[in-house]
Amino acid sequence: MRSFKDKLKAYLELLRIHNVITALLTTLIGWLTVRVEISTLPSTSLIVPLLAVGLVSSAGYVINDYFDVEVDKVNKPYRPIPSGRVSPKEALYLTLALIVVGVAPSITVGIFTATFVIVNTLLVILYS
Known about the structure:
Blueprint: H1 4-15, H2 17-34, H3 44-67, H4 69-75, H5 88-109, H6 111-127
């Protein structure tokens, strides 16, 4: 039986935090580019999309690892799913949770943000 620390490390590896940081930075640059005036601290118009992009990006990495498990058993056996540190079922549940937590708040920001996040989510899933 794996320890909580080992399991947490495997989940964080699945999320590819280093890639999420890149996605967050590009989202921030886009937000700053279209923002006419920045007179206050970041509001939900920035925080929610950043959260959504980070979570949906992570969901994409996890579902991609789920679908690539057979290839990864040969090429990347150390990855969390092929190594058995995270089960395929756990990966699917994690993907679903990341999508729900990423998409739900975007609906409260506005139609543009919600549409952007939902389309991004669909593209991430279709890519896998």
